[in-house]
Amino acid sequence: MSEGIIKRPFQRRLQHTRVQYIGESQNLEASAALVPVHDPVEPPTGPIPANSPQSPEIVFSIAYYSIDLESRKGQLPKAMELLEGQRESMVAGEGDVYHKIRLMILKAQIYDRAGLPQKGFSIAIRAASLAHKACYLSILWDAVGVLCKVLVSLDEFDAAIKLLKAIIPRALETEERELAARLFSHLADAYMGLAGEAMASSLKRRQNMNRVLECLERAFDEHSQIGNLEGQCEMMAKKATIMHLNGDLVLANDYAAKYLDLQKKAKEDMITTA
Fold it and tell me: Taking a C-beta distance cutoff of 8 angstroms, is the pair 242, 213 a contact?
């Protein structure tokens, strides 16, 4: 299972329920490990064949998604090494500003997956500034989303929510499903932080927990539209944890079962398509 799936709680400010969140997430991962599926076949790696298309856009896309693949597999040092190599090759040449911004955003995302989102703060700021100057709207919203993830890690939940609520309608106009899913997921994290600050059993806490579920559902729907099973797994596991924290064990078990089904399907699909 990908180490990036529910590897840490929504927010530190959930206090005593944070321990429950971690414990339930670990139990969910342990259960998934018992599902009888084959190990996924690794995709082919190595240098691009000599007869491959040499379009700069295609070459960059291959390099970009190779880095992203290593990051998703949890091979973060290797992903960072590949990213720095790609960045240096672009610095040596002219390079495309769009490509440079995408690498900056990817680097900030790798720091986030490593549990160090604050290290990507200045990177996200620069990426957002460059994207704004160049009027690259889709990656501008992506950069702002990464920035909001950093704000959440700093317990600046209100600021993150205001930014995300401002950009999500614009991001939806781009019809980029994966981007929308990430933004809704970030918004869920921010609302979860506010829920952790509220008194237990208070109206404010219940309202924010309901908002978390709404955002997770939107993120799940966006992942479903593009068949992103990894994203669906992550959202379903978070929903199961929320239901458990709310004391609704029936729904929690239902979501947990769906999570395991999605995890099994993801591994089977990797074998089929490899």
Answer: yes
CB 241 within 8 A of CB 254: no
Are 240 and 259 in contact by the 8 Å Cβ rule? The answer is: yes
Average pLDDT, the chain: 81
DSSP character for 9?
-
CA pair distance 106, 97, nearest whole angstrom? 14
32-85 per-position pLDDT tens digit: 433 333 334 344 444 445 455 567 888 888 999 999 989 988 899 999 999 999
- Angle value at C-alpha 79, between 75 and 80, nearest 5 degrees: 120
Please give the model's pTM, rounded to 2 decimal places: 0.78
**Which region, left, alpha or beta, applies to residue 265 given φ > 0 means left and ψ of -120 to 50 means alpha?**
alpha
CB 118 within 8 A of CB 153: yes
Cα 78 vs. chain centroid, distance in angstroms? 19
